[in-house]
Amino acid sequence: MMKAIVCDHPGQLRVVELPIPENKPGNVLLRIRRVGVCGTDMHIYKGTQPFLSYPRVMGHELAGEVVEAPADSGLVPGDAVFVMPYLSCGKCIACRKGKTNCCSNIQVLGVHCDGGMAEYLSLPAGYVFRAEGITLDQAAMIEFLAIGAHAVKRGDVKAGQRILVVGAGPIGMAVMLFSRLAGADVTALDMREDRLEVCSSVLGVNHVVAVGEDDKALLAVYSDDEFFDVVFDATGNIHAMKRGLEFVAQGGNYVLVSIVQDTISFFDPEFHKRETSLLGSRNATIADFEFVLDTMRAGRIPTALLNTHRASLEDFPAVLGDWMNPDHGVIKAIVEC
Ligand SMILES: [Zn+2]
Ligand SMILES: [Zn+2]
């Protein structure tokens, strides 16, 4: 038997004993060591994740050690690994184009199917990658960073461009980080001063603006009245997502990284006059994961500063409430098994 954390229904998490998963042929059996906690998990706990049924073992930001692996997988017991948690079908229209991140039949571990907040997990070998040259903590941080890296690729961010990232949660921070690494001039907009402080001091963004009466005027100042080549929304907030279009420069891109269970509408003349490119950005591909891994190995990601909190698997149900409280200043929390 193994310990796992199950969310029975919104608002209830329990430590339970489950059988160790049977390792089917072609699968890797992992001993999970680290699980990153993110907005998706909080949505699951709050009951605001649109793609979910309960009960669910959450956990999709996974690092661990190989216990058992197929001979042809290139993995051997004891290997430290990270997981790409988006199981794709390989056959649908998106997969045929290499866009496995938005597969028609996608199964995201910890969302559509049970995830890795457990001592063991069995999954197809193709989703398990050796975490060479990085720590287990770093390995558990690849996934959320890959989502940011993917969004930056979607937005086609180029050196010298002005970029606005609305929402300074972990995903927004990942977008800022990779936009800075791409050589862009990055502005962060958020309601929380503490988060904006991190954007300046840890991520090196060029400008920060607190949401308020004069925010648009400040954004104009920081962009020479032209606004931004690419605006990213990472808020999950309907008002912010509607408003973000105002900050897109003529000929610019608007990338919605976050998701909201609502209808987003724009005043069409504002959309049209900019010839706005509106883009969704969902999950990440293996190329994004590899890019993050390389960037991490090169020491260009301040992972230790972004990992603000940690707890054991057993303690997680008790601390999640605190972690969701903005006063606790959580950026990335890691659960240790
Ligand atoms: Zn995540
Ligand atoms: Zn597919």
Description:
The chain has 337 residues and is an alpha/beta fold. The chain has 2 domains: 174 residues, Quinone Oxidoreductase, Chain A, domain 1, CATH 3.90.180.10; 133 residues, Rossmann fold (3-Layer(aba) Sandwich). Strand 14, helix 9 and strand 15 form a beta-alpha-beta unit. Helix 4 crosses helix 5 and helix 4 packs across helix 10. It is globular and about 60 Å long. The structure holds zinc ion (ZN) (2 copies). The site of one zinc ion has 9 residues, from helix 2.
* CATH domain fold name of the largest domain: Quinone Oxidoreductase, Chain A, domain 1
The percentage helix is: 25-40%
- Number of E strands: 17
Sum up the overall morphology in one term.
Answer: globular
Order of helices and strands: EEEHEEEHEEEHHEHEHEHEHEHEHHEHE
Please describe the biggest sheet, giving its number of strands, its sense, and whether it closes into a barrel: 7 strands, mixed
CATH class of the largest domain: Alpha Beta
- Give the bound compounds: zinc ion
Per CATH, the superfamily of the largest domain is Medium-chain alcohol dehydrogenases, catalytic domain
Residue windows where pLDDT falls under 50 for at least 5 positions:
none
Q: Could you state the oligomeric state of the chains shown? A: single chain
Strand content: 25-35%
CATH architecture of the largest domain: Alpha-Beta Complex
Concise summary:
By secondary structure, the protein is α/β, with parallel strands linked by helices. Helices cover 28% and strands 28% of the residues. Strands 3, 4, 5, 8, 9, 16 and 17 form a 7-stranded mixed β-sheet that branches. The protein has a 6-stranded parallel β-sheet with strand order 12-11-10-13-14-15, with helices on both faces. A two-stranded antiparallel sheet has the order 1-2.
